[in-house]
Design a protein that fits this description.
Elements: E1 4-11, E2 14-19, E3 33-35, E4 41-43, E5 51-56, H1 63-79, E6 83-89, H2 93-103, E7 109-112, H3 118-122, E8 126-127, E9 132-133, E10 136-140, E11 146-151, H4 161-171
Parallel strand pairs: 5-6, 6-7
Antiparallel strand pairs: 1-2, 2-8, 3-4, 5-10, 8-9, 10-11
């Protein structure tokens, strides 16, 4: 049975239900399968040996998600080759590619959780009511241990960018 968490998050003040476990720093990062594009998939193992910052957004075509992805794209240049920044949303891969081209995003890798919401369920961020992934941040070390986890309580708020970047820098 899939775990559901109600009352831990909201959208514009209205409670939403998150599907999946609540992960914590120190936990092993769950594997996942998402889409790189229409034909290719990606898993956690594809980024083995890298420090991973996973920025989860409901949809790139919204203001906060746009700003969040742009912010991590600009931060990526300062973090070096040992770090990969993944932005995961339930947007279709076509929409992600279009958005990245229009926004000039060239350092963040966008991945789509649209097919099975496997990432959302594994990381406890799938919003049952909308079938979107809840805004959140995960930092995973080179050994696939979570070192930083931020679940947002309100879908329309920004994450703590500084804390997430500091968590990555501690691993360098």
């Amino acid at each position: 049975m899939t775990q559901e968490r109600t009352g831990v998050a909201a959208f514009k003040g209205n409670p939403i239900t998150l599907v999946g476990p609540e992960l914590k720093a120190g936990d092993s990062a769950p594997d996942f399968t998402v889409s790189k594009n229409l034909l290719e998939e990606a898993t956690l193992g594809d980024y083995a040996g890298k420090i991973k910052l996973i920025s989860v957004v409901p949809s790139l075509d919204t203001g906060v998600c746009d700003a969040q992805t742009r912010r991590f794209n600009s931060e990526a240049a300062e973090l070096g080759d040992d770090v990969v920044i993944l932005t995961i949303s339930t947007d279709l891969p076509f929409a992600q590619a279009r958005w990245c081209g229009a926004a000039g995003i060239d350092r963040v890798i966008t991945l789509s959780d649209h097919k099975e919401a496997a990432f959302g369920q594994a990381y406890g961020v799938l919003i049952k009511e909308f079938r979107l992934d809840m805004r959140s941040i995960f930092v995973i070390d080179k050994n696939d241990k979570l070192t930083y986890v931020e679940y947002l309580g309100e879908m329309s708020e920004h994450p703590n960018y500084e804390a997430a970047i500091a968590a990555v820098k501690e691993l360098l």
